Amino acid sequence: MLSCALVGQPLTTINLFLVFSSNIKQLFALSSQVEIPNIQKQRKHLAKLVLDMDSARTRYYQSNKSSGLSSNLQPTGAKADHLREEMEEAANRMEICRVSEYYFKCQ
After folding, report:
1. How far apart are CA 21 and CA 70, in angstroms?
2. Segment 29-81, tens digit of pLDDT
3. SS3 state at 6
4. What average pLDDT does the chain have?
5. d(Cα 1, Cα 8) in Å, to the nearest integer?
6. Taking Cα atoms as reference points, which of 60, 68, 62, 65 lies closest to residue 88?
7. Where are the annotated segments for Disordered (predicted)?
8. CA atoms of 9 and 12, how far apart (whole Å)
């Protein structure tokens, strides 16, 4: 009787291991099909937003440079205000995307 219980025990452990292995495989398959493309899409979007922010910053600083003001004075006027707002909005969009990507990774 004791030998039957010992013989059945490793078989149960093997069955549990096989079930666990198949669950892990399904989880990785789901990750590779759904999560990884979403992360790649999110990173591509973030890279685009970083480029947008850099170009807005460059336009703002070029405007500042071409206005002939010294480096401590801020340019004034509608165009300078528009470029500054555009730069700030681009930075905000990039930060929102960065935070959402971090939140998405942590789930």
Report:
1. 66
2. 877 788 788 888 888 999 999 999 999 999 988 888 887 655 555 556 788 88
3. helix
4. 79
5. 11
6. 60
7. 63-82
8. 5
- CA dist 22 to 9, 17, 63, 90, Å? 20, 9, 60, 45
Read off the DSSP letter of residue 77: S
Residues 9-36: what's their mean pLDDT?
A: 81
Helical H segments across 31-77, by residue range: 36-66
54: tokens are 């850099």
SS3 29: helix
Contacts 24+ apart (CB under 8 A), 54-61: 56/83, 56/86, 56/87, 56/89, 56/90, 57/87, 57/90, 59/83, 59/86, 59/87, 60/84, 60/86, 60/87
Place of tokens 């685009």: 48
The residue behind tokens 């493309």 is 37
